[in-house]
Design goal:
This protein is an alpha/beta fold. Helices cover 45% and strands 14% of the residues. The protein contains 16 helices and twelve strands. Strand 1, helix 1 and strand 2 form a beta-alpha-beta unit. Helix 1 packs across helix 16, helix 10 runs parallel beside helix 11 and helix 10 packs across helix 14.
């Protein structure tokens, strides 16, 4: 049957445009709602409408457009964006299909695609909480591709440069990100050149830590704007996370244990995590017991770590794959009984046990088969793979 796919906001790349072209070539109708000048720039396929009103008027607007275009399917990137929440709610009420894209649960070479929601809204969660389903069968090895950072950054800059016209064309739009693009770019301009200096210092700190053979735990930081932090956890930002973890570590970890805090590689540096760590170390009497890294070799850290603490990071999946004890403070697909520590953060430092790695591998294979596709959002090869592999999922009954 011929279906009508309504596209909302996508990643800062041509991916949604190329996916829409493929759906149209397959005989289906496509339409689009633009919220920013960047959305307009990356669409350019016709049959679109701009929403220039306030957020409060969006539910009624969606109702009119869905009825006008006879929409059967909604396609979006990130189901927790403020402009997407009313669309998801309307789709649930009307029985429409919602196809949600996100960065991959397991990387590289894969993106997330689920029907109905992702992360804590994933339809897989109720199934996985009961028990890991049977093995889904043979999984094809994903086709590898490379996405240089400059290509992703270029798309981001183009998208947000177009957004300079928002104050005229979309005066009521407010970004879902914690920082406006110019401020974020300023942060990157300062932080990225300094990483070369940090790398040498971090390498020396890691070598010294391994040489001393001290027990250490790893806390990988995430981005404050990540929906897994803002929507799917009780923790508001990385400052709150570090305060919570360092206080527990000071009170309950062994006196000779060390905590390694590693910053996210894409952090713009505006929150000054290093400065926050130094203040908390002094406040909680942890001098000599905390190592903060702006860079660092994560695989090498995980080979020697005694455990990992995360909110909901892909590093958590890497820790489970390596058989490391894991403490999850948010909502994650892999936060299941037998895989993560269930006794609370205070008991984790001394009572954590390794996960059931066989169960995790079954869970990983199931999530790969049901919730991800081979491809990417930013380079031509990754986009082509993502379009090719997403079509069967979108068109399935």
């Amino acid at each position: 049957m011929r279906r009508t796919f309504l596209f909302l906001q996508g990643p800062c790349s041509p991916f949604f445009r190329e996916l829409a072209k493929a759906l149209r070539q397959a005989g289906h109708r496509i339409c689009r709602i633009n919220f920013t000048a960047g959305d307009v720039l990356y669409w350019r396929l016709g049959r679109s409408v701009a929403y220039r009103g306030k957020l409060a008027g969006l539910p009624k607007f969606y109702e009119r457009q869905v009825q006008r275009w006879k929409v059967s399917d909604i396609v979006l990137f990130g189901d927790c964006r403020p402009v997407h929440l009313p669309a998801v709610k309307l789709a649930q009420a009307l029985g429409l299909r919602v196809h949600v894209f996100e960065e991959g649960y397991f990387r590289p070479h894969r993106i997330t695609l689920e029907r109905g929601g992702v992360n804590a809204h994933s339809p897989l969660l109720p199934v996985l909480q009961q028990d890991v389903p049977p093995d889904p069968g043979q999984l094809a090895r994903p086709t590898a591709f490379k996405t240089p950072f400059w290509r992703r950054a270029t798309h981001d800059v183009i998208y947000h440069a177009a957004g300079a016209a928002n104050w005229v064309l979309f005066p009521h739009y407010r970004t879902h990100a914690p920082y406006i693009a110019p401020l974020e770019y300023t942060g990157y301009a300062v932080r990225l050149p300094a990483l070369r200096l940090h790398r040498g210092r971090d390498d020396r700190a890691l070598k010294q830590l391994l040489l001393e053979r001290r027990q250490f735990f790893v806390l990988p930081l995430q981005l404050d704007g990540d929906s897994q932090i803002r929507q799917h956890s009780p923790i508001g930002n990385m400052r709150e996370l570090m305060q919570l973890v360092l206080l527990s570590f000071a009170r309950h970890a062994a006196p000779d244990a060390v905590l390694v805090i590693k910053n996210h590689p894409l952090d713009p540096g505006l929150a000054r995590h290093g400065r926050v760590v130094r203040r908390l170390v002094r406040q909680y009497g942890l001098v000599g017991r905390v190592v903060y890294m702006e860079t660092g070799q994560l695989p090498r850290l995980l080979r020697q770590a005694a455990g990992v603490i995360t909110v909901n990071s892909t590093v958590g999946a890497l820790a489970l794959e390596a058989g490391l004890p894991l403490m999850v403070l948010g909502k994650a697909l892999y936060a299941q009984s037998g895989l993560v520590h269930e006794g609370g953060l205070d008991s984790f430092w001394n009572q954590a046990t390794p996960p059931d790695t066989q169960r995790f591998r079954r869970l990983r294979r199931w999530v790969l088969a049901k919730a991800t596709v081979n491809g990417g959002f930013y380079c031509p090869m990754g986009i082509a793979l993502a379009v090719q592999n997403s079509l069967p999922r979108l068109l399935a009954d």
